[in-house]
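Supplementary Methods S3. Complex input for the glutamic acid-bound model.
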Amino acid sequence: MKAVTRFAPSPTGYIHIGNVRSAIYPYLLARQTEGKMILRIEDTDRERFVEGATDLIEDTLKWLGLDWDEGPIIGGPNGPYFQSERKDIYLAWAKKLVNSGRAYADPTPKEQIDAYREECNQKKIPFLYRNFRPENPPEWKPGIPLRFKAEPKDYDWHDEVMGDLHAGPEALDDIIIIKKDGFPTYNFAHIVDDSEMGVTHVMRGVEYLSSTPNYLALYEAFNLKRPYFVSLPHILGPSGNKKLGKRDGAKSVTEYREDGILPEAMLNYLACLGWNDGSEKEIYTKAELIKNFSLDRIQKSGARYDETKLLWLNGEWIRKIFVEEGVDELFKKTTDFWPAAAKTANEKYQKKVLSIIYDRLKTLSDLKTMTDYFFRDPEVNVDLIVNNKFLKKLSEADLENMLKVTVKELSVLENWNADSLQEVFNRLLEETGKKPAELFSLIRLAVSFAPFSPALNLTLETLGQKTTLSRLNAVARAI
Ligand code: GLU
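Predicted complex, serialized as structure tokens:
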């Protein structure tokens, strides 16, 4: 069956990773079945609307490689794809319910409704608006909310993730379908749109499960075939017992992107958050996800968010791209992440740096802190040397001598490459009688003043003879 799915975000600004996962599964199903993926912008809640949020959504989907077949930018036969531009469609559908006696105008003021709710709270009975339905509702006209007239009864339905479900009459109420401002509610608009757009699979967060009986009543009132329901489990915070929130340190997708998470890793991570194919496999390309995805392996219970895993996966992806596609491909993805000093360097040199450091990167933004010394001389900091755990036992004379011998050997080295540098190091160990940790820590610090560098011979090979010698000399002078 060719699935028609949709991602229907509300443009409220911040793109939570849970929102994005609700785009990934519909995308995978649509692509797997060679169906269609629709992007629909649910912007009828004007109070929560944020300018620019739609661009952010589109941009994020493109970054992740999730293209759509109908929706903003590209259009399609069932447009418009912004709910705010579909008002007439909703009103026409709403009128059908008014005409069949299944909807009524409700001018009851908010204070009165609150009083009904309070009355029920006092009596400790569930608040159901249908028990307070106005007896003689006026004719419906703009400015008056329109409510669906519920018929309390039992509903049974199947959810592809949650299984067979049942709800009793208490789940049904007179929900508002058109608000005072003339815009439809989510509860109503999505049913109209999914039907007009031919959506076969409604995939959304599990939080909509409790309202589903009301949706079933609407499908029935319009004599519509029910779609397949696919309720996606919550993403839980690291403790595993409540919904992931900002306080858990979870960043927005934009922040992860700016921090140097690769889109491949983000897609891989989120797709596997609450779904697996039953194997031990952890690294999935988009093509593999499309091939292996299945609704029946989406887990029912919440999935625990684990940022360490995301970072691990990102490192794996950095290495995978380097090994399988080469340094040029990885380099293309690093443009925004180099330290400022790299701007003056040429691409060939940057690629050389990248190829010796890539296997240490967790995120691309590590490039900023890890590679600065490849592009400008670090500030000489004698304290760092004399307090280093391997060097603090040595005297100044020792350090000076080690540097002197190193400079002497390196200045006469003719083939400046990693192998011959390694030979020089071996000779230096013999000549100075020092331990590898002592000699190498000194050279490493003197050329980089960084806590970490790739293998020393590769680091010096990349820096080049002239830079290496001038940095060693600068330190020798300062000690
Ligand atoms: N606009 C809703 C939201 O952002 C979408 C729910 C759905 O996919 O139907 O939560």
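Residues 8-10, 42, 186, 190, 204 surround glutamic acid (CB under 6 Å). DSSP finds 19 helices and eleven strands in the chain.
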